[in-house]
Amino acid sequence: MIEVRNITHRFQNTGRAALPVxxxxxxxxxxxxxxxxxxPSGCGKTTLLxxxxxxxxxxxxxxxxxxVEIRKPGLDRAMVFQEFNLLPWRTALNNIEFxxxxxxxxxxxxxxxxxxxxxxxxxxxxxxxxxxxLSGGMKQRIxxxxxxxxxxxxxxxxxxxxxxxxxxxxxxxxxxxxLLDAEKRTIVFVTHSVDEAVFLSDRVxxxxxxxxxxxxxxDIDLPPRRFENDEEIKASSAFVGYRNMIWHxxxxxxxxxx
Length: 258
Ligand SMILES: Nc1ncnc2c1ncn2[C@@H]1O[C@H](COP(=O)(O)OP(=O)(O)OP(=O)(O)O)[C@@H](O)[C@H]1O
Ligand SMILES: [Mg+2]
Prior knowledge:
Layout: E1 2-11, E2 19-29, E3 34-38, H1 45-53, E4 60-65, E5 68-69, E6 77-80, H2 92-102, H3 107-120, H4 136-149, E7 154-158, H5 166-182, E8 186-191, H6 194-200, E9 203-208, E10 213-219, H7 230-235, H8 237-255
Bound molecules: adenosine-5'-triphosphate and magnesium ion (MG).
Magnesium ion binds next to helix 1.
């Protein structure tokens, strides 16, 4: 379980006033659930994910993972980045090995685990390809394989499908749900897409900006194994109801005076 308790964050840039980014954000992510963070650009979603990963220390507040307060990255959590963040001079396989290297996994085991991670995302044939030889969807799969290679309980995904074309994006969503059905993990997923958030999530947490704070939390009560009948689900009145509710709240925010 991830517990975010009263997180407030300000970035202190030299020569400028401190920038308040997050204001008193609290939320709980229960084990095995998929939680999306949805909100306008600049509302602090990436910053919050980095705080949960332990890469950024919040100005105040605490993060507990399975009851233990965290202060730095750990093997229990892995980030999938907004950009693919692959090293261009390393092959697909070596990019995955890099994450394991950072965690001190030794040579032979590293190679085995990297191959296994490639298999899980269906790219074992592309082990020796370099990033520039791969499509956007493939690069994102490598990013996912890299995160999975350390076998984290928690995946922190920052707009992982934002750079993909709409069709590939839908396929990636379905593949992600299939993967999560086979191996239970807990996901915090940042997205700008309302449909993506509703389709993937058990819970959507909507943020407002300046500074970022929680606007509304919405539990999504759609059937499990949504990848089996995605088109039917997306056409259902329940799905459309959630989508309209979220759009309505987003538009209301835009109309508010700054
Ligand atoms: N390292 C940093 N130093 C100073 N300011 C930063 C830093 N990282 C982010 N910020 C500022 O914090 C605010 C929130 O940034 P963040 O990247 O968390 O937003 P976001 O919600 O992820 O936006 P987007 O949807 O565009 O990715 C922005 O105003 C940004 O300029
Ligand atoms: Mg971001």
